């Protein structure tokens, strides 16, 4: 079995450059907000980036990227830990998970619901970032009202998405 190469000392710099080039393509739109980068690795040796995106159902969608040994791990919180209708919500999420492409659903820290994926380091190109970000925003906008209405029904009130100015 052939494995993806281990990241080298320059992998963080290359990923940072890819993200900079990708963000430059979206500079004119208000779709991509800030990109923050942690210059030093964490205690596990992972570098991190935070990308703020504009959604329709959720004003700000935060996408976290972590450079690991062979992959870039991407995650965004879909919702905090559910408090109500948990069984029905998990059933809905399992059915939705079967339909997803590029990302999958997972229970994350503190029982929150996340969209996650891992991309081999060498495959995270500008085009792949477009696919990853597009899938993230699409899935959050599609599922957010439903999961919040199910899992946090007593506190969530859906607001109407902004009208498109296009």
Overall tally of structural domains: 1
Strand content: 25-35%
Number of helices, where a helix is a run of at least 4 consecutive DSSP H or I residues: 3
> SSE order, as H and E?
HEEEEHEEH
CATH architectural category: 2-Layer Sandwich
- Sketch the major β-sheet: 6 strands, antiparallel
Number of strands: 6
Which class do the helix and strand fractions yield? alpha+beta
Supply the CATH class: Alpha Beta
Characterization of the model:
- By secondary structure, the chain is α+β, with helices and mostly antiparallel strands.
- It is built from three helices and six strands, in the order αββββαββα.
- The protein has a six-stranded antiparallel β-sheet.
- Strand 5 and strand 6 form a beta hairpin.
- Helix 1 crosses helix 3.
- The radius of gyration is 17 Å and the shape is globular.
